[in-house]
Amino acid sequence: MFFSFDGVDGAGKSTQINRFTKWLQEQGREVVTCRDPGSTALGEAVRNILLHRTEIPLHRRSEMLLYMAARAQLVEEVIRPALAAGHTVVSDRFLLANIVYQGYAGGLDIEEVRRVGAVTVGGIMPDLTFVLDINAEAAAARLTRSLDRMEAQGIEYLRRVRQGFLEEAKLRPETMVVIDAARPVEAVQAEIQAAAERALSRKS
C-alpha cells in the first residue's frame, strides 16, 4: 500500500505521519517513509533550492518542473522498489501538492500540471491520500518558525491552496479522504487509522 499525506502548511502532517507510521509498524508492516521533495540526494538538493534559496527567482513553471524532477527520482529510487518488495510506503506530499500549489493556487493550467505529473510518476500513485484540512488563518497561526518560500506567499495564497485540495478531493473520493485537522491530534489520528483500515481491507 502507498499512502500520502497532504494539506496546507501548518495542518499537522508531520505529527500525524509519525503516529500513523508507528501504528502501521505495530501491525507488523515494514514501512518506508519519505518526503516529496526529498529523500534522495537529488531530491534534497532540489528541495533546498525550492524552499530555502529565496535569492534564486523561480517562475511558477520552473518551480513545478523542479518538484517534478525531484519526484521522478523519489519514485524510481525509493517508492517503486519499496512497493515491489512488499513494503508499505508513507509519503509526506506527492503529485497532488503540485496540482494544488502551482495549479489551483499558482495559476498554471491544472490539466497541464496533471499531464506532466503523469509522466513523472510512471504509473505510481497513492492508494489513499489523507488531506488534512484546516482553514488558512488557523494554519498560518501554527507556523511559528521561519517560513519557507511556499509558506511565505501570504494568506490569500493559502486560501487558494486549501480550496484546491478540497476541489481535488471532491473529484477523487475513492482515493482521497479529507480529515478535519482542527481537532485534537488523537481524534485526527483515529480517523486516519479508520480510513486506512478500510483501504487495507479492500486491498487484501
Features of this protein?
204 residues, 56% helix, Rossmann fold, five-stranded parallel sheet, 5 strands
Oligomer class: single chain
Residue-averaged pLDDT: 93
Number of strands: 5
As a whole number of angstroms, the C-alpha radius of gyration is: 16 Å
The CATH superfamily label reads: P-loop containing nucleotide triphosphate hydrolases
Largest sheet: 5 strands, parallel
Instruction: List SSEs in N-to-C order.
Output: EHEHHEHHEHHEH
Highest CATH level, the class: Alpha Beta
CATH architecture label name? 3-Layer(aba) Sandwich
Strand order of the main beta sheet, please? 2-3-1-4-5
Q: How far apart lie the N and C ends? A: 10 Å
Secondary structure class reads alpha/beta
DSSP helix fraction: 55-70%
Contiguous uncertain segments of 5+ residues: none
Q: How many individual helices?
A: 8
CATH topology: Rossmann fold
Q: How many domain units?
A: 1
Q: Which of globular, elongated, flat, extended, rod-shaped describes the shape? A: globular
Beta percentage is 5-15%
Give a written overview of the molecule:
α1 packs across α8. This protein has helices at residues 13-26, 41-51, 60-84, 95-104, 110-121, 136-142, 155-171, 185-203, and strands at 2-7, 31-35, 88-92, 128-133, 176-180. The radius of gyration is 16 Å and the shape is globular. The chain has one domain: Rossmann fold, CATH 3.40.50. Helices cover 56% and strands 13% of the residues. The model has no long low-confidence stretch (mean pLDDT 93). The protein is of the alpha/beta class and 204 residues long. Strands 2-3-1-4-5 form a five-stranded parallel sheet, sandwiched between helices. It contains eight helices and five strands; from the N terminus they run βαβααβααβααβα.
